[in-house]
Amino acid sequence: MPDNDTKALIDGLNEDLRGEFQAVIMYRLYASMVQGPYRQELRTFFANEIPEELAHAQILADKISALGGTPAGSAAPVKVVMEAKEMLEAALEAEIATLARYVKRRKQAEDANEHGLASEFDNIISDETNHRDELRQMLARWPY
Ligand SMILES: [Fe+2]
Ligand SMILES: [Fe+2]
């Protein structure tokens, strides 16, 4: 039976997993839906995020299962928007929330004596930080 720290960690990891599934769906929808003069570039950007978010989902689902939990079978809801700028803003908001969750989860992993997982979070936190920064850079000089 998992102890209380491990149970709390599994619940947290499932929240993160739903967030990664959300990110995969969000970037897939935005890549397909984006219109306007920047479509080609944004489509490539959004599509390129998908493998990284899926890799995060794999790490989380593997770990939840290894800890004796059941990985979540659903995604957090995706904000469906039409304008390119709204997509970038929604994605930025999601990446910022994701980062905050992982910083918290890293500490939770340490508390549950899951030091290997805690160190995996360093890489994930660095990936999500890059996502956030690129979205901010695109929005910084958005022309309208
Ligand atoms: Fe991710
Ligand atoms: Fe991300």
| CATH class group | Mainly Alpha
Rounded radius of gyration (Å): 16 Å
Mean pLDDT: 96
What helical percentage do the residues reach?
Answer: over 70%
In words, what does this structure look like?
- The structure is a single chain.
- The protein is elongated.
- The protein has helices at 4-33, 39-66, 84-111, 115-140.
- The chain is mainly α and 144 residues long.
- It has one domain (4-140): Ferritin.
- The model has no long low-confidence stretch (mean pLDDT 96).
- The N and C termini lie far apart (55 Å).
- It contains four helices and no strands.
- Residues 20, 23, 53, 56, 128 line the site of one fe (ii) ion.
- One fe (ii) ion binds at residues 23, 53, 95, 98, 128, 131.
Quickly list its features:
mainly alpha, Ferritin, binds fe (ii) ion
Blueprint of the fold:
Elements (H helix, E strand, L loop, with lengths): L3 H30 L5 H28 L17 H28 L3 H26 L4
